[in-house]
# Entry
Amino acid sequence: MFWKPIVNLLEAEDIKFLVVNAQHMKAVPGRKTDVTDSEWICDLLRHGLLQASYIPDRNQRELRELVRYRRSLIQERAREHNRVQKVLEGANIKLASVVSDIMGLSSRDMLEAMVNGETHPETLAGFARKTMKKKKEELELALRGNMSSHQRMMLKTMLTHIDFLTEQIAELDVEVAKHWPHLKLPDPSPLDKKDAAFFKIVLAAPSFAAFFRDTRYD
# Structure
């Protein structure tokens, strides 16, 4: 990405420029040394032998950065979810065997109660909402564990980090919507797929398809 700061400066001065793939220049026969390299590139340009690489405009580059950083935060949050599951397993709590999402509303209330020192399975199962109430007996069995103070501290730290990541993702969504209100980003689920995200973005904003396909200068 060494070309980005230079391109930003040239764009600010409204100077026309070409970003050329070095491999393409090497394929053109001729004398190329450190001394004559600049002159050689000028000669190639004058004779139309340089092929300009696709460079998205500044708005598209900024959108790419926002979307990709958003994805990295989603992936990090998914890793934190897995770490929470490992802490629960270490405490012999089998919550995942009953609920499909350990970070759902009911599960999150139970986790918060564990962090605050609650240990009684019946009390923890009482945080079940809506359809989860039908699984109260299963929850009570799954929540019969033994969480140590260390595990409780680890769980609290992980939940705090997850909340922070969720806030950051929401802020990026607001930033995207501020500049590109027509662009609909995929839901920030832990299993967000690159292809699914790409096609949803293309469907919402076809003009952005090209820079998502071109990855030569990522």
